[in-house]
Amino acid sequence: MSENVITGSREVAATAIDPGWSCPLPLRDSPTIVMGHGAGGALSAELVEHLFLAGYGEANGGDGGDAAVLPLPGCRVAFSTDSYVVKPTFFPGGNVGDLAVNGTVNDVAMSGARPQFLSTAFIIEEGTSMEDLGRVARTMGEAALRAGVRLVTGDTKVVDSGHGDGIYVNTAGIGIVDDGVDVRPSRASVGDKVLVSGPLGLHGVAVMSSRHGVEFGTAVRSDTAPLNGLVTEMLATGADIHVLRDPTRGGLAASINEIARAAQVGIRIDERSLPVPDSVVNACGLLGLDPMLVANEGKLIAIVPADDADRVLEAMRRHELGAEARVIGECVAEHPGTMVARTGLGATRVVDLPLGEQLPRIC
């Protein structure tokens, strides 16, 4: 669809559209930050590339991944940081505390590393309940024990009432990368199989339901969970795993597009193979959302050589967090840098990187 079909000219849009409505896809030439810049889609990528990296200049030493793998004397370490501003603070299946621990553990694990240590920093709005803050702290401790990591340093800041939104959490994580492990998006290769560890869209729908008080027939709980144990089992097969990624903001579509562009391969997904629960299908149908764009917090994508796919899949299914793992697609030589989906009718459609986020403040 052309830009004119979507928006028309700005003059036409200003007169033809009710002023009480707003487009969820912000203008790309906005002179100020909009919510879409923090959504993990095209706007986020442009902000990082054209503002932050340009500003850092020669000081930039990263490769654009969720975790940087850094050489140190005698070993390699993975280092990652992330901030969590989910709204509401508490949602079915979790809260900002275990989300922060699990999310950072997973970012480190997606580089093939064994997570070891996390930092925790809080930005707390004046007036926040001590009971709520204590509940978040306890949940973080429990999540760290489940993941096998230690919370070793941190910071606390308080902002004036009305200048925050409850509790924001920043975490950073460090892990050890074993010899022979080389997991990064640019290693995806033609012929590789694409695997997913389980049902998609649960986190996004759970937060949406809690935030807006909407029910979709059955209770939906977030899938937030630490994936490092699952990754350990996958690597133990000896397979040459090329890529691991947890499809959080922007969902499956954002992650697959980022991998395709990093490796300059085409990635073809079979929509009929996607494990989307009925509750997510119903919610997305009601709200006009694409399940491939809905956030997850306890699932991973793996891209592995075709010869290794069966044994990796078997190892995933033996782990509780991969019991419903399946192959959903493959890397192809056609349309490099692009994700396409084969529909139930046999047609093929392009699935582009989302511009912004269907549901902001998701993590």
TrEMBL record:
InterPro entries in UniProt: HypE (IPR011854), PurM-like_C_dom (IPR010918), PurM-like_C_sf (IPR036676), PurM-like_N (IPR016188), PurM-like_N_sf (IPR036921)
Protein's name according to its UniProt entry: Hydrogenase expression/formation protein HypE
A Pfam family this chain is assigned to: AIRS
Family as reported in the entry's similarity comment: Belongs to the HypE family.
Matching CDD domains: HypE
GO terms classed as biological process: protein maturation
Domain of life: Bacteria
PANTHER family linked to this entry: CARBAMOYL DEHYDRATASE HYPE, HYDROGENASE ISOENZYMES FORMATION PROTEIN HYPE
PurM-like C-terminal domain: residues covered: 190-337
Domain PurM-like N-terminal residues, every copy: 64-177
